[in-house]
Design a protein that fits this description.
By secondary structure, this protein is mainly alpha-helical. The model has no long low-confidence stretch (mean pLDDT 79).
């Protein structure tokens, strides 16, 4: 059974009986000026140092116990490693969600595009993004969301998308303004969206 305290709250001064050591409620705890500002004094550090002296504390075992490291190296024999490996394989086979999670990386993923995500952007600077957003009236060209609405709903400004998904092609006719939600949405069925936005770009360009 937890200890029951009977004392005055350190925040509001109200007398209380409960399990809180210093505060009468969670609200007082969260609004206390001491939250996140606790600092150990030199005297406190000295007391802690004295109490820990001579003790085998876990965070210094690696430095103070080289014999333990040697023991582990000897303990992990090839036979034990092989047994552990087989145990892990059996575990993964018996848990289908692990197979799904770890079998879809890289080239095995149906969304694989030759590793283009690792390629850097080319000549895709902030002034260019601002110019594209100004051209598009600071609105998502798919759902019509404004930049103010995007900041309010997603805590992000509108983004600028490469229509042909080629990060190195930063020609203005290949760029279009989208919100976060629509930018995620168009990562699927890329050919469809590429054709869709290219038609919009051609209409605007000819207009």
């Amino acid at each position: 059974m937890p200890k029951i305290y009977s004392k005055n709250c350190a925040k509001c001064g109200k007398h209380y009986k409960g399990i809180g050591k210093k505060y009468c409620s969670r609200q007082c705890y969260l609004t206390s000026s001491s939250i996140g500002r606790y600092e150990r004094t030199a005297e406190h550090k000295k007391v802690m140092s004295e109490r820990l002296k001579g003790r085998d504390v876990y965070w210094i075992r690696g430095k103070k116990r080289p014999e333990h490291s040697k023991f582990l190296k000897e303990w992990w024999t090839p036979e034990r490693r092989q047994l552990k490996s087989q145990q892990m394989k059996n575990f993964i086979i018996s848990n289908p969600h692990y197979i799904q999670k770890y079998s879809n990386y890289g080239e095995k993923n149906p969304m694989w595009r030759g590793g283009i995500a690792r390629r850097g952007y080319k000549e895709f600077y902030q002034l260019l993004k601002d110019r594209i957003k100004k051209r598009d009236n600071f609105q998502c060209q798919l759902c019509g969301m404004s930049e103010e609405e995007s900041i309010k709903q997603f805590k992000h400004r509108l983004g600028v998308h490469h229509i042909d998904y080629d990060k190195t092609n930063s020609n203005e006719i290949n760029l279009i303004t989208l919100c976060n939600r629509c930018n995620s949405k168009i990562n699927y069925e890329r050919e469809k969206w590429k054709e869709y936005f290219q038609k919009i770009a051609n209409i605007c360009g000819n207009g």
